Amino acid sequence: MVTVTVSDCLPVTEDVAWVPVDDPTAAGRARRIATALADRLGFTEQRTAEIGIVVTELATNLDRHARHGTLVVRSVRATTHAAVEVVAADLGPGIGDPAAAIADGHSTAGTLGVGLGAVHRLSDTVTVFSEPGSGTVVTARFQPAGADLAGDDAAGMTRPITGEEVCGDAYAVMRANGRLRLMMCDGSGHGPLAASAAQEAVRVFCERPADEPPEQVLAAIHAALRSSRGGAVAVADLAPAEGRVRFAGLGNIAASVVLGDRKQGMISVPGIAGYQARTIRAFDHELPAGAAVVLHSDGLTEKWRPAQWTALFDSTPLVIAAALVRDAGVRNDDAGVLVGKPRP
After folding, report:
1. Residue that is last in its domain, among 142, 169, 194
2. Average pLDDT of the chain?
3. Which of 173, 192, 246, 295 could connect to 184 by a Cys-Cys bridge, CB 3.0–4.6 Å?
4. Distance (Å, whole) CA 238 – CA 111
């Protein structure tokens, strides 16, 4: 049996704040949140100021050129290093040529491209996904000099229900033995008690042996949640070398394998982790090269289809997660999504 080390579940990402960009004051609000986070994480004064510039540019563009814009400020923590991550998403006019939009001096009236040159210059990594008429997602990461925070093969996002400060959905990722393991928990209800249950699921998941079958991991989480509100939980073990994903789900976590326009659902069994589980089973599914695995709570509708977007699933896991929350998320529930794309 292979023992899990702390690094197997790192880096850990936290969605620090969701900032709706619905008026010009939102840019200042987002900048203050991002620079305060950078300061807490130990960034230099100059780098903190540069993060503030990028956030201001993104939020200002959302206000001027987009509809239903949102800016998410995130922390990404490893053992000795931490990064600041920013996600800007909207339902605006989109950008016809994202590559040209990130060039300094490029400006097209009515699009989000204005100012992306500064975002590109000042960020360590930037990804822009846009489809004309359907909106844009921009992700930017800032990390300490010399740091290399792994994690571009999986990413998730969580958004609390309107009116709550904490989200009852949580996820975790484990990387070990050439495999990628994903866990999503939707704590029952909303607010702090739901969040506490979901975080307990994260803790147990990260403490289990790396080669333990997903159904046994799920059974351990089920036992640990008996003193909590419980919730829906799913564990997916991606083995790209074998072309297989083994999936165990309990409750209403939606799960699918996506390749091109094909979305193949994976099977969960009825129940509530911590309360009711007549049986816990795992099922094997094909994992073609280049496919993505998506897990999400019922805070996202299951009606989304890959064909809604031209090339979304060719992008990064974080961009995919952000677009799914934007386009399939519902506001009257916590929303959580986790996307895994094993490296070729």
Report:
1. 142
2. 91
3. 295
4. 38
| Residue 214 and residue 174 share a domain | yes
Is 149 within a domain?
Answer: no
Q: Provide the pLDDT for residue 115.
A: 62
Answer yes or no: is pLDDT of 65 > 90.
no
Q: Both 216 and 291 in a single domain? A: yes
Residues in a beta bridge with 285: 245
Q: What is the pLDDT of residue 112?
A: 46
User: What average pLDDT score do residues 232-255 get?
Assistant: 97
Same domain? For 104 and 160 the reply is no
| pTM exceeds cut of 0.85 | yes
pLDDT > 60? residue 111: no
Centroid of chain to Cα 3: 26
pLDDT at residue 96 in the model = 77
Asked if 299 and 329 sit in the same domain, the reply is yes
Q: Do 232 and 270 meet the contact criterion of CB atoms below 8 Å apart?
A: no
Range of the domain at 107: 6-142
The CATH number linked to 135 is 3.30.565.10
Q: What is the pLDDT of residue 286?
A: 97
First to last CA, the chain: 27
- In sequence order, the 6+-apart residues with CB closer than 8 A to the CB of 300 are 254, 324, 325, 328, 329, 330, 335, 337
Is residue 162 located within the same domain as residue 88?
no
